[in-house]
Amino acid sequence: MACDHLTLVGVPEGALHRKVMNRHEAAASLVSEVLATRRKTIRLTEPLSAEDAVVQSMPDASPAKWHLGHTTWLFDRVLQTIGVPQTSKHYEYIFNSYYNALGKFHPRPRRGMLTRPSLDEVLAYRRAIDARLADLEGSPRLAEIAPALELGMHHEQQHQELILTDIKTLFAANPLLPAYATHPAVGEVNRGGRSVGPQPLAFRAFDGGLFEIGHGNQSFCYDNEAPRHKVYIAPFSIATRLVTAGEYLAFIHDGGYERPLLWLSDGWAWVNANAKRGPLYWAMPERGSREPPRVFTLRGERDLDEDSPVCHVTYYEADAYARWAGARLPTEAEWEVAATAANTEASGNFADEEHFHPIPAQRSSPSSSGALPELAQMMGDAWEWTQSAYLPYPGFRTVEGAFAEYNGKFMVGQMVLRGGSCATPRGHVRITYRNYFPPNAEWQFSGIRLAKDP
User: Fold this and answer.
1) How far is CA 416 from the centre of its chain?
2) CB within 10 Å: which end of the chain, N or C, has fewer?
3) What pLDDT does 12 receive?
C-alpha cells in the first residue's frame, strides 16, 4: 500500500493521543485491548442468523456482515503499512466506507446486495487479521502503528453501536417483530413491582462566564474534539434528567404534531411528508385514543414505560418539544460545562449493561438545604441533541492522509449530540465526545435534555 494513500503510521500526536510511560510496553498492551474489542463485536452478532446479518433495512443502515468486514478491513490497511500483505484486493472495494483517497467503493445504499462474500468468509477474514494482530506482540514495528491501532479500536466500538441500531431497524421492519436479546439484562432494573415515578424534573443554574471546552489532555480523542479553546457562555439552566416518554406523550396528546408554530420550517415539512404522529418505533393508537402506544425495543415489543427517557427522536422533534415545554435545547458548550460539573463520565446505562434501552432516572437522596440539584443521565441512556451545528472548533486541523476524511468533511448540515446511549460501549465516549447526525436522523438512540435562559 502506498503511504500517500492512507497515512496511518503518521497520525499526529495532537489529534490521536495516547499518553505512555513506556511506548513499547503500552503498544503491546494495546494489541490485547484491540483483540478484546474485536471479540466483543463478535459477541454482539451471536444472536443473529446468517440471514439477519446480510439484509440492509434502509440506506442509512448497514448489514451486520458489512460492519464485521469493514472494521476488519481497516486493520488490514494498518497492517499493510508495515509490509503485511493485503488479504484480498476485492475487499478493498467492498469494505471501504467513504475514503475517496483510497479509490472507488461499493455504494452504501447497496450494501444489502452483497450476498458474497458469505458470512463464513467474512468471519474467516476476521480470524486471519486477528491472528496477524496477535503476531504483532513483540514486533519492533508495533510502536510505530500504535496510534492507528488505537484509532481502529475506537472505530470498531463505533460500529458495535451501529450493529445494534441497524439491526433494530431491520427487526422493526419484520412483521414477526423478533427480539434481538432474550436473556436477562445485566443489572436488570428492579423496582420491586411498584411504580416509583420518574425523578422530579428540576433545573440547575450555571453562571455565565468564560469557559474552556474541548479535549486537552494526552488520552485518546478524535480530531473533532480538539483543540481545547475558550468560549463565552451566558447564564443558563439545564434539566437534571432526560425528558421521559410520558412527558413526550403529553406533548403528543396536546397536538404537538399538529401545531406548525412549534416546528422549524424543515421540521414541519418533515412531519407532513412522513405523516409523523410520534417517535420512531412507537405504534401509535388511533387518533383520539388515550391508549398508550406500544414500543418496539431490542427486547421485542412492549408497553410504553412512561418513566424511561424518550428516544429515537429527531432534532426536529426535540426542538419542537422544547419549544412546547417553554424551554430550548442546550448548546454543546453548555452541555459540556454542565457534564464537567456533574463529573459522571464513568456512570450511566451503556451497552455493557445489556438493557439496550434507556432506563428511568433513579431517584436520588434528598439533598441538603442549599445544595445544587444533581445532574442525572448525562452519560449513557440516550444521545442528547444540542442546538449546536456540527462545525470545526477554532484552530481545528484534520489529520494527515485519508484519515482527514474521518470527521472533518462531514462538518456541514449536521447537529451535535452528546453523552452516549444505551447502545454505546462503556468507556468509548467522554465528556468532550462530539457525535453528529443530520436533523432528520431518528434510528439512533437520541433523546432530549432541556435548557433555559434566566
Assistant:
1) 11
2) C
3) 35
| pTM recorded for the entire structure | 0.92
Rounded distance, CA 224 to CA 392, Å? 7
Same domain, 319 and 224: yes
- Phi and psi angles of residue 417, each rounded to the nearest 5 degrees, phi first: -120, 150
Helix ranges (H only) for 231-307 are: 245-253, 265-273
User: Rounded to an integer, what distance in angstroms lies between the CA atom of residue 427 and that of residue 152?
Assistant: 15
Q: How many domains does the chain have?
A: 2
| Alpha carbon 332 to chain centroid, angstroms | 15
**Domain that includes residue 222, residue range:** 203-452
Contact 446, 383 (CB under 8 A): yes
The pLDDT value given to residue 192: 44
Whether residue 86 is found in the same domain as residue 228: no
Kindly state whether residues 330 and 446 are assigned to the same domain. Answer: yes
**DSSP H or E stretch at residue 120:** helix 119-134
Question: What are the residues whose beta carbons fall under 8 Å from the beta carbon of 174, sequence distance 6 or more?
Answer: none
Specify the amino acid at residue 405.
E
Cell of 345: 463520565
